[in-house]
Fold this sequence. Notes:
CATH class of the largest domain in chain A: Alpha Beta
Largest sheet of chain A: 8 strands, mixed
Domain Aminoacyl-transfer RNA synthetases class-II family profile (chains A, B): 144-552
Largest interface: A-B, 128 and 128 residues
GO molecular function (chains A, B): aspartate-tRNA ligase activity; ATP binding; nucleic acid binding
Function (chains A, B): Catalyzes the attachment of L-aspartate to tRNA(Asp) in a two-step reaction: L-aspartate is first activated by ATP to form Asp-AMP and then transferred to the acceptor end of tRNA(Asp).
Oligomer: homodimer
Helix content of chain A: 25-40%
Structural class of chain A: alpha+beta
Organism (chains A, B): Flavobacterium suncheonense GH29-5 = DSM 17707
Number of helices of chain A: 16
CATH architecture of the largest domain in chain A: 2-Layer Sandwich
CATH superfamily of the largest domain in chain A: Bira Bifunctional Protein, Domain 2
Distance between the termini of chain A: 57 Å
Number of domains of chain A: 3
Shape of chain A: globular
Binding site for ATP (chains A, B): 220-222, 229, 479, 531-534
Amino acid sequence: MYRSHTCGELNLSHNNTTVTLAGWVQKSRDKGFMIWVDLRDRYGITQLIFDESRTDKAVFELAKTLGREFVIQVKGTVIERESKNPNMATGDIEILVSELTVLNQAMLPPFTIEDETDGGEDIRMKYRYLDIRRNPVKNSLLFRHKVTQEVRNYLSDKGFCEVETPYLIKSTPEGARDFVVPSRMNPGQFYALPQSPQTFKQLLMVGGMDKYFQIVKCFRDEDLRADRQPEFTQIDCEMAFVEQEDIIDMFEGLTRHLLKEVKGIEVDKFPRMTYEHAMKTYGNDKPDIRFGMEFGELNAVAQHKDFGVFNAAELVVGIAVPGGAAYTRKEIDAFIDWVKRPQVGASGMVYCKYEADGSLKSSVDKFYDQDDLKKWAEITGAKPGDIIFVLSGPANKTRAQLSALRMEVATRLGLRKPDEFAPLWVVDFPLLEWDEESGRFHAMHHPFTSPKPEDIHLIGTEPGKIRANAYDMVLNGNEIGGGSIRIHDKDLQARMFELLGFSKEEAENQFGFLMNAFQFGAPPHGGLAFGLDRLVAILGGQETIRDFIAFPKNNSGRDVMIDAPSAIDNKQLDELFIKLNLNS
Amino acid sequence: MYRSHTCGELNLSHNNTTVTLAGWVQKSRDKGFMIWVDLRDRYGITQLIFDESRTDKAVFELAKTLGREFVIQVKGTVIERESKNPNMATGDIEILVSELTVLNQAMLPPFTIEDETDGGEDIRMKYRYLDIRRNPVKNSLLFRHKVTQEVRNYLSDKGFCEVETPYLIKSTPEGARDFVVPSRMNPGQFYALPQSPQTFKQLLMVGGMDKYFQIVKCFRDEDLRADRQPEFTQIDCEMAFVEQEDIIDMFEGLTRHLLKEVKGIEVDKFPRMTYEHAMKTYGNDKPDIRFGMEFGELNAVAQHKDFGVFNAAELVVGIAVPGGAAYTRKEIDAFIDWVKRPQVGASGMVYCKYEADGSLKSSVDKFYDQDDLKKWAEITGAKPGDIIFVLSGPANKTRAQLSALRMEVATRLGLRKPDEFAPLWVVDFPLLEWDEESGRFHAMHHPFTSPKPEDIHLIGTEPGKIRANAYDMVLNGNEIGGGSIRIHDKDLQARMFELLGFSKEEAENQFGFLMNAFQFGAPPHGGLAFGLDRLVAILGGQETIRDFIAFPKNNSGRDVMIDAPSAIDNKQLDELFIKLNLNS
């Protein structure tokens, strides 16, 4: 072993003992007669001291040559520091070095290995192994490990069995694009990488495994938004002989356990909200409820006056921004510009200040008197000192726009506190959503989600109104988990595929194995999947998932460190019975 | 919840309580006035009773319709059984059913859902979800879960951090064939699925993670032998600032822990054996040491007589088979035929019975007298009552043949006891092995394995004699884990690639990122990987890994249940910039 202790554990109780440490040179201060070196490993930093008067000359000379990030091994004596550093675990001691070995030299790193580095995103990704040496990334990876250990132990204690499902499966055109893998042994055929183990976990329920989970990589070949990865990790769960309430109980328990174990936070029973309520109140099916600013619908009080814009709108809806009466005209204009950005897409914004003296002052005073505006304040819950922001237009779009504004305002007001956690369940999702582009219904969750029994009669008449036995767990404005009670009846599943526009042949060809399985005694079952990358990032109080993934890919799906993907040679292509077709 | 209890937990302490159970009908016996049903779930079997005189008529009639594998829910009262079954956890009670709900009907399964099924391998794979209902498969999956939980908890307690490495990486022509994944966003380029996370775990060491592990899927597109899978699972581990001894200590500790926790077996410190000794003594680098039959080399005593076959052989080597003197001529001939099979490839076999009376009788008595044969007995350790089997020919081939024979004999003699565990370390592997076909050296483990420092001087002169800092953990004749201390010096790594026939450009193109990383302060490091599928199967006392994999593939790499791989449509191919090339 290259060390007797780590760089994070020595203190005064080790005083005068001889120790061996190994690690990286964090920094070195050479005062001529005395050299101090901060030696770093995963566990901490320990100060080394080389003293011209006490250290062997050869060792002292060698110490002068040490550069940042050199890998060294030292033997020495633990001594009490003259000037202690109470902010460091090892701050009471230092090591008077007697032996020094350079295990490996290091070139100057392309960015500083500090909590606040001077390296940009691109260079840090290219040298990710150096980035991982930095505390923020290293600690994120350690935190992720702690979370997954807690999840595994909690679920195992509850009787869940982790089962590995295959990675080389079958491609299905439904949903997002698959990554595919040509088969050498089956010419012209391809495996697909799983977008989720959905059908396999259902088959495990048919197989009587009763309680399944898996922490598993999933793959989606989609155009990548800023914070998406082509490969991502799910905590995938399924239970048999359960109803929605059982699933909610179980995974609320898990989440509460996590919050307690990894954050030290106790939370109450999670509130529940229907999809409809969430959309009307927050314009969003994953509302951040750490703060208020609930939507107030103003149609009844703002329409039928002389303001044509509102009169023509399907929905007039506003939020009260706390303290917003103090905004300057310039600040308000900035918000108006913000909602007009293409990413938000509003055509304009009306506002109304509720002054501290109780008077109301709006941008549409021409059309509304104080009594009218008072009603706006009542409905949006504005108090003196607030400002009301009002958007109008087609209902769905306007809600989405106001939701974006609400989040932006909250961020600027510091209401989205990373150390506050407000989980909730959103329930009663629609089973289907209409897709304008393809002119047909899509499954809102996936084709295996069961309709609520009381809504099944709507299948033939108003399928868009069928609610699903589906539920999402939402945390701080993020969907961190989602699931449903599944269909376990072959005929209902066939009906569902029909509703989604599958021909009998397509359904049979793609999901015949599942429908067949349902004929051999499928139990009622349901489950849920958490997005682990996101969950860990939120628990870690971060907005971005990248620091919680050891080797992430960039927005073009490239690993810039190893330079993948890359060309392969013709022999490989031939063996796989494919060739390039770059002009397609 | 569909149940108040599982089918495995009720006993006399629940007498007279009302319970609700749900599960599958294992079997049903209809005696006219009385119907017994065995209800099964993952946890056990509970006997239900429907009694014409005590059960509601409608319920009784419905019970008559129940077929095998129907999914039902029942409510009833726990009562004491008249004829108890001491072999069942629930054997003291039965449930007098008052309510019965059929949750799902079932077609007759294509094979019996019993411990000993009438279904062959193919049909069981096609309906794997039914196969999983059988105890042998279900228990194997639960056992696998238990093993992985133990591994994770043990390593976490020791300070290891599980880090997920990417699945979409870069193809490297070295070693086995990669599965590749065409990239839609990077036309003409391909990802590869990892054969192991080798380079990533080394980069994590460069990144200071210090102790890494991962239970991770790996992929090899090789022609599948009987018990190989294209996707398999590794327990992958790496440590920094360690020497071989530290790795051996740590993972011997893990394995000892597993044997104790999952098998209740305490084992001593594992013996160690050099590769050279293993090859000479067992003809094999993964010897099964649950039994003896060590090789005795007979050249000195069997050559230079008049037996031309032996005289012409590079090696004459034998084993003493305990009790073998009792073999009939027919039995011996069967062994001779066995070694002559093409899979073994011997041209013949000489034998020598060591009779109980102390006399020796060989198939080559013409050339050897009693004194000669006595020496054979001494060298092979034969005792009166044994038989000596002797093979001869080129050394390596002959050893491999005798090793195969030794294992076959041991199997027939029942010496390979599934409940006996004899782990050992094989150490001091050669760094390189000569490949006749390509006329160059290959890395015996992989190109990142470090040579023993004392052998480095042989690089320029006799590279074939360099020993590696490599070690395998062997259990009952299987390599269950293997690893090495890695090269952490850029120049030595470059030298190694050169030795393996890489041009500078190839080395740079494929592994430049790793050699670059070594320039920024790589610590000494090493690790090991266990084959989880095999490890679990051996711990479970089984020869085959399939029952320990939920959804295995067949020998053509097909998943016959979901029918994968399969054709994909032209639109998908176009998007990926490839086309089929079936005439390649």
